[in-house]
Every structure is written in structure tokens, then in C-alpha cells.
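Review session, final week

We close the course with one last complete record, chosen because it touches almost every idea we covered. It is Aminopeptidase N, a protein from Pseudotenacibaculum haliotis with 818 residues. Go through it on your own first, then we will talk.
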Amino acid sequence: MKFQKALILIFVFIFSFSNAQQDPLSIYRGERDKINNLVHTKLKVDFDFANRQLNGEEWVTLTPHFFPTSKVTLDAKAMLIGEISLGGQKLEYNYDGYEIIIDLPREYKKGEEYTLYIKYTARPEKVKQKGSNAITGAKGLYFINPQGLQKDKPIQVWTQGETEASSCWFPTIDAPNQKTSQEIYITVPDKFVTLSNGKLVNQEKKGTNRTDYWKFDQKHAPYLFFMGVGEFEIIEDKYKNIPVNYYVEKKYAPYAKEIFGDTPEMIGFFAEKLGVEYPWNKYSQIVARDYVSGAMENTTAVIHGEQANQMKGQLIDENRQENTIAHEIFHHWFGNLVTTESWSNLALNESFANYSEYLWREHKYGKENADAHLFENSKIYKDNKDLYDKDLVRFYYVDKEDMFDAVSYNKGGAILHMLRNYLGDEAFFTGLKKYLTDYKYKAAEAHQLRLTLEEVSGKDLNWFFNQWFFGSGHPKVEVSYDYNTLEKTVTVNFIQTQAKEFKFPIAIDIFENGKKIRHNVFVDGRDASFKFSFSSKSPDLIQVNADGVLLADFFENKILSDYIFQLKNTENFQHRREALLEVVKSQDDKKAFNAVVGALDDPNYKIRILALENIDLINKWSKKTAIDKIKRMADSDKKTLVRAAAIETLGKLTDPELKPIFDKALQSESYNVLGKALVGMYYIDKEYAIKRSKELPLEVKNIIATPLTRIYIEEKDDSEMVFIANNVLSGMFLNNNPKIQAIYQKAYEQIANSNNTDAIQNLVNDIVAKGNQYRQFNFDKVGINLLRQMVEKQKKVNKSNKLKNIEVIRTGIAQLVQ
């Protein structure tokens, strides 16, 4: 599972959605007891689109785990049960809407298999369990525009099983420590394509309908079952002789291979890196509407949310789905082949999938690029202070959904990077190969990973697992330096200030006379000191955590000259970034300004962008030289995102002489460059910029909605209010950029005070839709508040459509209050 990080953090921040009033220590959350084991699941399903229901027949084969039993309990949420039988004999059962407790006709012993027949109706709209910050729905089965009433949205059906929502559409033992093979007969209108796990064995037409038979012979957990139904184009690819297919809407078919085309290379790279060949018979990916998370690793049938859909003008900047694609592929080893035995051990799934993003970027783009990703990934965990006290493997929590956070994902990925660094690549990856081989098609816990790595490496890892896997927090370290100029030595002192003591290896670089010497030391206490020799008067810089591996916060007293040297000479992304953010504070100093200008040539494009965003061009030092450099970057930097940032920086100058640069940028294939150029042009030639913006196709306008909104809001262009209204809510809440939020807050105010009924209707529709979609985050209440504010604003204006507008808004309130 790949969650949408920005969305989660913003919702948590805005709505303060928390279960903190409950005591998370009250219940131990271990592995579910195995009384009966799933063996095989056979389903026949069709859909009642009008009522958003599934009609199902199931043949589920089970066997006692160890002790004899005459009962079996199956999870089945909000279903209507028509019949339960065994060998034609109807069975007695009790059903409370959540579990079916079935009386078997006799006692069965370990090794004896029995097959239950269950006829049922799944009613996902009746399901009462809630989703999480990461997975915003938990009803298992989703009907999208089922009656085709929304003209701009296709009819689709798809499932989402994690964590325990597969039991919303078929009875099962819905626990990650269960494994079953499967076969599914899916009956749909003939115009639809279907996708499920495993192989499409047969298709049979029946009038206007068709039944697709999907068969999956290997074992996997119930939460990985998947069905997808809709009108999709299938773009074929392959890895070796294994089919690799991409299911997308027709509009995105020309770009499917640009979006997903690295999939075969990713599969091959991970197989080689792990020493374990891809274990399944196909790999398909489908992009669905209104999906409730980022993506999900259903075995051989991965689902992605709409953010995967991209046009050429977006892909030329970067493929925003690339990390997610790698993440879900890696799950096919960590999560699908070997599965966490309990949600408490979720790190065995998600931390590894998170770390796969680093591995892929290291392979494809180099270590420096991967290190930048690691830093940004870890920062998401660090920036959320509420996560500091959460263990990676945690057996006490309020709800299993709470496990899907930046500890299980981001911090877990960083921990695996530290473990790899400590063991070395050969031992680390040999250990992972053994772990995957020993526990394939089984469930595992963190201790089994530890024992496997210990067996391979010969090292005791209890200390590492106890503090990082079974503990919380990270080191907070004060660093100081004692110089002895007579002996030409420096002592580097570490003092840990957090409550719990950590021990860790750490790299220290000492720079002097144009050379760098690396020292690898091991901190084994709250206070630690290490003495090093130097040959010159004093070192130019001492850089702790030089390789950026250790997940920690460091506090040290550096002066401007230290940061300037650090910006120019350190190799790790996070150290150059840290230095740049300090140096930009002192640009009235000539050396500091020149260092910022120098950062415009940094090999990492994110450093170049950061320098562009922060450079002070209202500065007496070499202003013309710097502007000339930025002009060249706007024209020819190899990264279009840097060109866009350069154009935005030049736009702040509002200099008519820059018009040719903006005009040329308006021809760019990059939508990012195009959007920034329109804004830059607007401030020197409003009429021309507005004319060019209105000539854009609507699909392009929607992609660059933010810069266009900025222009139209400043222009008070009422004719564009309908377009702006479609993006206001996303701009206000679904990003973490205060500048963008301010633009859309202004847009909301203008629409709320306007006479434009169509714009008001669009905004109301969006508020109602998102209020319902994110009701578990109390966004329905936020939506009601926004709509009530609109009513009050309309009451105060003297415009012709006032009463009509108020009625539109009140209708929206009524829809959210229901």
C-alpha cells in the first residue's frame, strides 16, 4: 500500500482527527489465533449496479490448524446470507453482521479439509467500519458512478482489501496470517474489461453479459484479493515471458508506457538485487477513479489512484508515480510472498516497500539522487512530532488502521537503510534472500527477520532491533569540538539529549587542504568523544553523519563560513541543502550571495531549484551576472522543473526586457514551464498572457490550474470563475504550500461573494463530494462550515442571483447533513 503522504499529513493537521482519548495500551494486538486455516476460495459474482451490491456464491475450503474443531468463524461484514451448506447439507449458523459462526456437521481434525458453500449478497454501503489516514475507505467494494449519471466519470467497480475489508465482499478469515489460493468467475456487461489476481483462463458470453474466469494457484493473504471492472484500454508489455499489462482509460492509453514503462526493468532489478526471481505469473496495473489511497499491491493486479494518470506535458517534468510503481512491485516479495503475521508487524510489508524506492532510484539515477529521496522521505516522519513516541513494531494501538503512518513507512525505510549500512550490502541482501526463501507463501514477524540476518551475518542484532524496530524515537545529538592546536588534534563530542539512549555507527568527514578524510566510529553511550589528528592550522570543516545514513537530529554551532564551505564541498544532499538554507539568510554578505549563485550549478536539480527560490536579486552583489545565469537556466537547464523555477524567479523582477524569455517558454512542452511563463508574462503584458491562457485546452488548464487561478483572481475575471471553482477545495486543503493555499482562499472568497451561479454550483458540488469522501476526517463538518459562510456572504451582497445562489448552497448543506 502506498499512501498519499501530503494528503494524510494535511488532513491530520487540519481536522485533528485522533483517537487519543482511548487508551492504546489497553489491548495487546498480536497475531490472530489460527483455529481453521484457509486452503482455497472459489467465487462466482455479479453486480447490482443500481443498489451498489454484489451477488455472490462462494466455495471456501478450510482445515483445522492444529486442534480438532466442530465450528468455524468467518468474517463477513454487512451481508445478507442466503444459504450455508456442506456437501448439500444446510448448516446452522449465527450471524451478527460482522462474523458468521458456523456449526460443522462433525468434528474435523488437522489435515481434514472441508468445503463450505455460501450464497450471499454483499452490501458495501451498509459497512460501518472506518478507514484510516492512509486508506480513506474500508467498505471493500466500491461502485463508481454505477448508473452512469455523471457524464464526466466512467462506470467502474473495484475492490480494496487492506486491512480487513475483503470480508466486505466475500466471507473469509480476514487476517494477514491466512493464505489461500483462489478462482473467481466475474459476470459483467460485455462492454466492460475485468481484472483479478492470476490468469484469465476463460471468457464466456451470455447475451449482453460476459463471465470472465480468473484463476490464481499460489497462496496469498485475503486482503490481496482484487477485482476491477470498467472500460479500460489494455496496453501490453512483458518481463521475460511474464505478461505485464497496463489498464488505463482511453484518454491516457498513448501515455501508458511512459507512465508505467519502467515496470519490467523494476521487476528485473528487484529480482536480481534480492536473488529471488519474481514469483508470480503476471503483473498488471490498473488506474481507477476515486480510489481511496495512493496504490495497493494486490497480487499481480495492482491498483493506482488517478494521480497516476499523466499527460506528456507532465511526464516531461517527472513521472510523479514512479516511486509508487516501484513500491508496489517490491511488495510482491515483501508483503505478498512473505506477509506480516499481524498488523503490529506491518513494517515487514511497508518499510521494505518504502525502502524499495531508494533502491530503485539508486539503481536508475545514482546514489546522490537516492540520498535526496531518503532525506525527504525521513523528513516527513521527523516533521510530524506526534510520531516520535511510536514504535516501528507496535503491539498496542487503538485501531489497526493507525499502523499506516510515517513510522511504518518512512521511518521504517530509513531504519532499513541504516541496517544495510551496518551489515554491508553482501550480508544484508544475502539475508533478505534467505528470509524470502525460508518464509515464502507464509507469514512472518520481525524476530524472524532478525534471526535470519543474524544467521547470515554472524552479528548479534538484538541491540539494533530493540532500539529501532521495537523502540521509538531517534537520537537528538548535541555536537561540540575541542581543538588542541599544539598537538594538532580535534575531539568531536556527542551528547544525546533525548530520554532514551541510542547506540549507532556514524561517519565523520574532516576537510583540510582540499582533501577529505572519512572516519567511521561507533557511539556506544549517551556521551561519546572521538579524537582525530589534522595537519594544517585547523580543519576547514568537520561534517558529522557525513553519509546521511543515521536517522537523527544534530545540533551544533556553525558560522556562516562553515556553511559556505559545506555548501560547496560536501557530497550528501541533506548537508548541501542544510547549508544553502542557512547561507540564503545572509545574502547581504558578498561571499554568501556568491555561494548561492554557485548553488545554481549544483548537480542536484532540487538544490538548483531551492537556490532559485531563495536567491535575493534585489542585491548589490553581482546582480547582473546572477540574472544572466538564471536566464540561461530558464532557457536550457536539462531539467524542465529547474527551467520553470528559473522563469518564476525572473517573473518576480517584472522586467519587460524578459518578455522574449517568457514568450519562448510559452512554447514549452512542459506544463510546469508553461504555467510559470504565463504568470511571468502576466505582470509585463496582461492582455497577451490572458489571451494565451484562454486558448489552452481545458485539460491543460486543469493541470496548470494554480498559476491560472492566480491570474484570473488578480484580474477578477468572472468568466473564469466556473473553471476556478473546480479546483478551489483541492488548492485550499490538499497541498501543504501556504502560498498556494492563500491563492485558493482568495478564490473561495471571490466565488462566495460573486453573482456567478454556475461557479457557486461547481464549488458546492466539490465541497459535497469531498465532504462525503473524507467524512471520517470530519471534512463533512468543514464543508458545512464553508457552505454556511457562503450563505452569509451572499446575504450581504446586492446581486440579482442572490436568492438562487443561497438555495444552491443550502441544498449542498442539506446533502452533507444527511
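Two points worth writing down before the exam:
Confidence is low (pLDDT under 50) at residues 6-22.
The chain has five domains: 31-103+114-231, 232-332, 338-469, 476-557, 704-818.
Good luck, everyone.
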